[in-house]
Amino acid sequence: MQISPTPLPGSALVDLTLLEDDRGFFARAFCRQEFIDAGLEPLVEQANISFNHKAGTLRGLHYQMEPNAETKLIRCYRGAIYDVIVDLRPESPTYLQWFGAELTEDNRTAMYVPRNFAHAYLTLTDKAEVIYQVSTAYTPGAERGLRWDDPALGIDWPIPPVSVSEKDANWPLLSESAVEAR
Predict the structure, then answer these.
(1) What distance in Å separates the CA atoms of residue 159 and residue 56, rounded to the nearest whole number?
(2) Is it the case that residue 39 has pLDDT exceeding 80?
(3) Positive or negative, the Cα torsion across 41, 46, 51, 57?
(4) CA 23 to CA 175: how far, in whole Å?
(5) How high is the pLDDT of residue 180?
(6) How many angstroms from the chain centroid is the CA of residue 52?
(7) Hey, CA dihedral for 49, 51, 84, 65, is it positive or negative?
(8) Residue 11 to residue 87: CA distance in whole angstroms
(9) 44-169 in CATH: which number?
(10) What's the predicted TM-score (pTM) here?
């Protein structure tokens, strides 16, 4: 694996190192020790799969409050998504800044999302399928969200979303409430 930091400290892009031959390839998608060596939390409590019928489907921006804050490792293994993270750590020099990357079945890149970051993705293709490992079990009472179109964040989505859940469309704007990460 090749672990590369993003502009938001603590987050990373994880690329596969392919061992190829005439049959195809083999690659390690996760290694606890390599994550530890890179300063990343390696815990995996749960693995989730998300299937999306149409391009333009937006899911997020989600996070869980402490003590249920999650780390996530997101990988798109069918189609393509634009994956976005937002730093919610008030003490961070990149507080409320965002970073986005295209994750596709071809580039096989994964996004490592640290605790106290919001996460969302927008499907760029029909039939996009995403798998993600999570460090903490989903806790409904700890779930929070940010609006995907909040002008205070200024996220530059590559295509307009055409499908957003009612819950995701109705998270409060930052100007309407304080971010609860802790």
Answers:
(1) 7
(2) yes
(3) negative
(4) 54
(5) 61
(6) 15
(7) negative
(8) 9
(9) 2.60.120.10
(10) 0.94
d(CA 71, CA 43): 8
How confident is the model over 127-166, as pLDDT tens digits? 999 999 999 989 989 999 999 999 999 999 999 999 999 9
The domain spans of the chain are: 44-169
In the three-class reduction of DSSP (H, G, I as helix; E, B as strand; rest coil), residue 87 is classed as strand
- In DSSP notation, 91-140 reads TSTTTT-EEEEEEETTT--EEEE-TTEEEEEEESSTTEEEEEEESS---G
pLDDT at position 82 over 80: yes
pLDDT of residue 43: 81
The CA distances from residue 24 to 83, 132, 147, in Å, are 27, 24, 41
What sign results for the dihedral spanned by CA atoms 159, 160, 162, 165? Answer: positive
Q: Say how many residues make up the chain.
A: 182
The residues annotated as belonging to the active site are 62, 132
